Amino acid sequence: MVNIISRRDLESGIKRVLFVEPQSGYSTGFNDTVRVETLGPEYLAAAVSDTVECQLADLRVSGVDLEEHINRFEPDMIALKCGYTTDVPVAADLARQIKRLDPSLPIVVGGHHISLSPQDLYIPEIDAIVYGEAEEIFPMVVEELGAGRRLDRVPYLHYQDPAGEWRTSVPQIKVDNLILHNDPSMNDRPETLRSLCDPYRDSYYFLYYPRPYSVESARGCRYRCSFCSVWQFHHGTYKVEGWERTFREISRIPDGSYVNIVDDLAIQVMPQENYRDSDAWRLANALIESGNKRRFWMQCRADNIVRNKELYTRWAEAGLDMVLVGLESDDPVELKRVNKGSRVNVNEDSINFLHSVGIKLWGAQIIFADWLHDKFDHLTEYNQRLGIECPQFTIHTPLPGTVDWHKYKDQLITTERQYFDFLHPVLPTALPIHEFIERYVQLYRDCHMPLSELKRMIHIGQVPREGVITFLKKFRHLLNPETYQSAIDLHERWARSTAVA
Predict the structure, then answer these.
(1) pLDDT for 268-278, tens place per residue?
(2) pTM higher than 0.85
(3) Is the separation of the CB atoms in 294 and 252 below 8 Å?
(4) CATH 3.40.50.280 in the chain, residues?
(5) Where are the extended beta strands (E) located within 175-319?
(6) Superfamily name with CATH number, domain 10-168
(7) What is the CA radius of gyration of the chain?
């Protein structure tokens, strides 16, 4: 049996696609401090822009009304994003809202999380779920739906048949170990259609920087951290576009902008490679020679930084402002626990070096549910001693699609997706939940960047005063114990249910 979509204007094909970026299911944290353009829809819109008119309803932005967008734009298809685990209930509610407005309007869902756990949205209101990287698949979906044809012709798809049964054309794909530089599949992608997000640019922010842009130059990861689903999503491959394409993409962005390089593994140089022969070195040189005034944020490995200090010195000159390093822990046992493949002394060496060349650190660190007070005390001292400007404390969360999910899923106190936001412990805590949350909040109080440093950055013109004021207002939410009341309530319900059992 096959799925045939009926549309009132089917003969004319799909002419208008409305992309929908949901209000994030995150209760706080990332959503409070970072809101950037949505690159996935920008790539997909570019892939069909020759035949289809595309608009975006960015529901993260205050005042954006989905019903008003649909009534005004009259789309022939909705492309709904479900990138985070916490977005599942949000996306489901949006799909129901859309079908109440127009039962004949097809809804196609895509994104990181839903590719790894598509069953989460096997609901009647959704017509199809696109798996994985979709620049090649999405135009096929648009064509098939527009012609009233059968979705079983489209590969890498989950779809409903006329009986309401879910079918799939997604093959079994094994995890490989491919590293592809100057990869044709990356170089041949359409350039991002930034006009999709430009209407919302004034409402985007990256910490204290207003109106940021995003660039993707690599996909996947060559490492195998147990808490991360990136390498699973990309089947173990790590693909990088040529530096010339990246340079062209950056050059399209207004000079003076803040640019978020979204790669999970940026400017990576292979251990056997000389950094001066790398595309990362050529790109930095091209930016310097062009007189670049943009500033950049990247995610990089500590061991890559330590091996290639001259490369990062060059990037500091090219405009590298801040690096996210997945420190995860300063305990070798815990690093092994998550299969990080790094060492504590290398992490510290990378931090000290970055500071020596004027690059700020976003230090991502994991808080484990089995911690007692001494671990919280130690982590506070660690962050203060190393002067980590932007500490990120994520509560260990076994996400669907990760090795940790399979390891810990029988110990979870809930599988409700709205709690998988790295701020709700979804495993039993060793400390009473009230104490665990108190210590978690205190970490941010004790370790975030001093106000004096922010004032210094304003004084030297590194950040705008208005951006800092806006950031501090949002950051206060992290410091408010009431923000985490839902985590306390969750654990108390779980405790009562286990006591009764």
Answers:
(1) 998 888 999 99
(2) yes
(3) no
(4) 10-168
(5) 179-180, 205-206, 209-210, 213-215, 218-220, 238-240, 258-261, 295-300
(6) Cobalamin-binding domain (3.40.50.280)
(7) 23
